[in-house]
Structure formats: structure tokens, C-alpha cells
Design goal:
The chain is 67% helix and 0% strand. The chain contains ten helices and no strands. InterPro entries: Homeodomain-like_sf (IPR009057), HTH_TetR (IPR001647), TetR_C_34 (IPR041483).
């Protein structure tokens, strides 16, 4: 039996412990799913007594929200690095870049469903504020990178594409990674799982259609999201 680690006392030790917990959560979610991840698995992976987790994360939601934050920022870095060579991309190339950089991180794709569903609302308001601040900054950075890599997209159109990419990726990831019950059902009725089980090609195709619509002559102008009132 592994001996529990000693309590982290310095700020550096605590930061390292949080990093270890996040890495463990990522590895477990990659092997199973975000839905199935349990805190006891995470603490066991780093040799930490379960009761000590509260010193680093107040809840499962806070742990997973921080994981979503770090993985989302990493996606922004990947996308901006891929598009940052100054070359103009076609619609098809932009759809491919969005899809490939998302698909490179399966756990992020899984988390995209859980963030608005339960994680953001499961933490205190200051943690939610911090998450939203970083998420919007990354969104604006990626929007600018997409617009700069295209002769047809403005920043507002790029924001629309990103909104579609994250919404679709979250939904399609869940569909393409069914529970055992649904997997058995798709084996019995293959036509029901035909589209659902092809995450990358489906996402890339739909994003290509979105980009085509946004760059077509006479397309509706994207709304100015900052000016819309809550309803």
C-alpha cells in the first residue's frame, strides 16, 4: 500500500501538488471519461489522502473547471501557433485546423459539455469570474488569429465559427463516445450510430459548411454579442 504523501506546506509545494492532481485527473479522464472520474481515483494516483484534497480544490467541480481552463488555454496556443505563419487559409483549411487542434485533446472535447452543464455553476463566483475572464481572453485571441489567417473572415465572423466549433465539439464528442448501452444499440442498429461515431470528419464537415455560409455573398451579419441584452 502506497504511503500517503506529506502535506505540502510552501507555496511552491502546493502549486506542484495542484499540478500533480490536475495531471492525474487528465490521465484518468483520458482513460475513462469526465463523467466517470471520481476524486478518490485522483487522490490515489498521487498518493494523497482523500480528505486532504480540500486543501487544493474545494470540490470535484473546481478541479475539473481548472482542468478545462488549462486545456482550453493549451488549445488556444495550438491553434494560434498553427495559424501564425502569416499564410492565408482557405475555408477548408480553417475547418481542418479547428478540428485537428480540438481533436488533439480528447479530454478537452469531453469537458466542453460539462463546463456549462455543471462545472461553472458548481464553484464560487470569484472562481467562475476568473475562469470566464481567461476563457474570453482566449476566445478573442483565437478569433483574431482566425481572422488574420483568412481573406474572408472578420473578427465577428471568426467568433461565430469558434462558438460553433466549441458547441459542436462538445456535443459530437459525447455522441461519438457512447455509453456501453448505446454502443450495444448501435451494433444492433448501425444506421443510428453511423454519423455519431465519426467525430473528426463530422466536425470538420459542419465547420466547413458554417464557414461557407459566413463567407457567402449576402450572408447575414453576425450579431454584435457585446451589445445584446440578456433575455
Amino acid at each position: 500500500m502506497e504511503t500517503p504523501r506529506q502535506r505540502a506546506r510552501s507555496g511552491e509545494d502546493k502549486a506542484r501538488r495542484r499540478h500533480d492532481l490536475l495531471n492525474a485527473a487528465y490521465e484518468i479522464a483520458a482513460r475513462t471519461s469526465v463523467r466517470e472520474l471520481m476524486l478518490s481515483q485522483v487522490t490515489a494516483a498521487v498518493g494523497l489522502d482523500p480528505s486532504a484534497l480540500r486543501r487544493y480544490f474545494s470540490s470535484r467541480e473546481e478541479l475539473l473547471l481548472e482542468l478545462a481552463e488549462t486545456r482550453g488555454l493549451a488549445w488556444a496556443e495550438r491553434l494560434c501557433a498553427e495559424l501564425g505563419d502569416g499564410r492565408r487559409r482557405t475555408r477548408e483549411e480553417l475547418a481542418h485546423s479547428l478540428t485537428s487542434t480540438l481533436a488533439a485533446d480528447p479530454v478537452l472535447c469531453d469537458l466542453l459539455t460539462h463546463v456549462p452543464l455543471s462545472l461553472e455553476g458548481g464553484v464560487d463566483i470569484e472562481r467562475a469570474r476568473s475562469f470566464k475572464t481567461k476563457a474570453f481572453e482566449a476566445h478573442h485571441t483565437m478569433s483574431r488569429a482566425l481572422a488574420d489567417a483568412s481573406d474572408e473572415l472578420g473578427v465577428m465572423e471568426a467568433r461565430t465559427v469558434l462558438a460553433a466549433a466549441t458547441a459542436l465539439a462538445g456535443n459530437l464528442w459525447q455522441l461519438s463516445h457512447p455509453t456501453p448501452t448505446l454502443a450495444a444499440l448501435y451494433e444492433q442498429v448501425p444506421e443510428w450510430g453511423h454519423v455519431a461515431l465519426h467525430f473528426g470528419p463530422t466536425l470538420e464537415y459542419i465547420l466547413g459548411v458554417v464557414l461557407l455560409g459566413l463567407t457567402a455573398p449576402g450572408h447575414p451579419e453576425p450579431p454584435d454579442w457585446s451589445m445584446l441584452e440578456s433575455t
